[in-house]
Amino acid sequence: MNTQTALTIGRIAQSAGVAIDTIRFYEREGLLPEPRRRPSGYREYDQSAVSRLRFIRRAKDLGFTLEEIRELLALSADRHGGVEGVRERAAARLQAIDERIAELQRVRDGLAELVEACPGHGAPEDCPILKALAEPNA
């Protein structure tokens, strides 16, 4: 590796917008290849590590799990069927997000009803929110 292009772990962490511990974690998880080491033992990275870290961070921001990100990284190297596989995984993630949004909307609507029903004063045993939380089938 050319010493002009060699980057320290701190430098790639800053460039990619992640913590140093995150980089070490991704290395242990196999999402980021083990870097070369200088004779001093310090890690030495190139610019491709920054790109890979940004990919991982953005995929996490979109809700992909580490295992799904591992699959996306493998598919990104597949010149023949990779794009189809990436699309399938992204569509599956989108469906999971839509399901989660629907569930959160249901929870929100139920909580809004309880808040509306609660007068905000009186005895705790008369509070509809507390009653609903204590119900066995809630």
From TrEMBL:
Lineage: superkingdom: Bacteria
Keywords attached to this entry: Coiled coil, DNA-binding, Transcription, Transcription regulation
HTH merR-type domain location: 6-75
Record SMART domains: HTH_MERR
CDD domains listed in its UniProt record: HTH_HMRTR
Alphabetical list of PROSITE patterns matching this protein: HTH_MERR_1 (PS00552), HTH_MERR_2 (PS50937)
InterPro entries associated with the record: DNA-bd_dom_put_sf, MerR-type_HTH_dom, MerR_fam
Coiled-coil portions: 87-114
Pfam families per the UniProt record, alphabetical: MerR_1
Protein name per its UniProtKB record: MerR family copper efflux transcriptional regulator
Lineage of producing organism: Bacteria, Pseudomonadati, Pseudomonadota, Gammaproteobacteria, Lysobacterales
